[in-house]
Input
Amino acid sequence: MSGQAPIVIDVISDVMCPWCFIGKRRLEKALMMLPDSAVKVQWHPYQLDASLPVEGKDRKTYLEEKFGGAERAKQAYAHVRNAGSEEDIDFQFEAITKSPNTINSHRLIRWARADGMQDAMVEELFKLYFTEGADLTDKKVLITAAERAGLNGALVSELLDTDQDIKEVEADVFRAHEIGVTGVPFFVIDGRFAVAGAENPETLAAAIRHAEETKTAE
Output
């Protein structure tokens, strides 16, 4: 495959989606199965619930509205928790006190692209939310995540106080809906093949390998 451009994997995801965290781990495993493949991963925004207020919503209230209460939510999350444990993700759903509007998290991920730090940024946001129960609507939490990922915290702090890239993120979410994305994670491989959901590593690896084998010379 020498001399050929890398296979681009566009991952459409939301940081409040536990299956997206699982999907990230499974993609990482898939890439480990393809050590000789040149791959570039890009992250794109999706909002599972864009109706959430910017300041977020009390988690208990949110679960009551979505599932009919904490007990039903616990049952619904049991499968997610089991799938997460298989990927060494220790989901701490009980620690989450607020369901966030993720628009600002997606702004961070967008800004991280220029420095090649998207993956690190996504990882920090997932970890903070799902394993520490952090409030992703809190500016201090977002700055901490940005700094952990290697971004300039002072610059991020300034940008978060503006409307920089809000419309661009919203437009990206709209485009995801336009191409038919109704759930995440959603993987677009080489702009030609789609894999919906947190598929197992073998399936993702096979799709990437197929994209390589059918890629025309550039």
User: Anything to note?
Assistant: DSSP finds nine helices and six strands in the chain. The mean pLDDT is 95. Strands lie at 7-13, 39-45, 57-58, 98-99, 186-189, 193-196. Residues 124 and 148 are 7 Å apart (CA to CA).
